[in-house]
Sequence to fold (289 residues):
Amino acid sequence: MGVASETAPGQSLYAIAWRRLLRKRTALVGLAVIVLLVLAAVLADVIAPYGPTAIFSQDAMSPPSWTHPMGTDLLGRDVLSRVIHGSRVSIYVGIFSLVLAIFLGIPLGVIAGFYGGALDNFIMRIMDIILAFPIFLLAIVIMVILEPSTTNVVIALGIVRIPIYARIVRGSVLTVKELEYVEAARSLAVPDPRILLRHILPNCMAPIIVTSTLSVGTSIIVEASLSFLGLGTQPPTPSWGWDLKANLMLLEINPWITIFPGLAIFFTVLAFNLFGDGLRDALDPRLKE
Fold:
């Protein structure tokens, strides 16, 4: 059954998309993991058995046990507690780098697509220059210019993702602005800001939402990679990437020290990708049930 046939009077596209999303089990699994991750980040001080920097020197390098379910690292810190607290960094970087990219990328895309001409050409050429570099490489360059910190990782990832949102929004605006209701609003001398906010931007939200969901997972990988290289989050702040780097030499002797942070990264990114893929399908009116 197509989307058109299942649309009830007064039912919005997002209501239909939500109903379709509920039928996608993999997307719901991804959403459940994301919710658990956010709860872990918010309630880390409550649910973590120990502080992330608490040292149990007598238990250093201990294997998983009832006392330390994921074992301890070289310094005697509880791995489970560090994994839980490390989720805060991942969520912080993923969300706030996304906010920065959207805050700057959407207005640039709207302006370029709506007004066109030389302004469009100027904005998009700058975006093309940024996109010419791989995201990870450009993030490394920015972090070298700045200094290693979690906040600067947010800035770097926000900057490298601005062109993605600018291009997506521009493409949507170019299509929507030619529709009859937009032309009618223009003929009635409706101010441009009102046309953009009430008629054009709401119709560009579907691709923005999908891209945002997938972008968070990518940002978490890049943050972990930068921390692994020593360019991201710095100790004593717990970070999955930094814990991988600090304990990599012990992988053969005590693998649990690196396996659990690695699994945290893997399942978190997988969850965002599963949810993003399901959301993309649910919001795509061309796909049938």
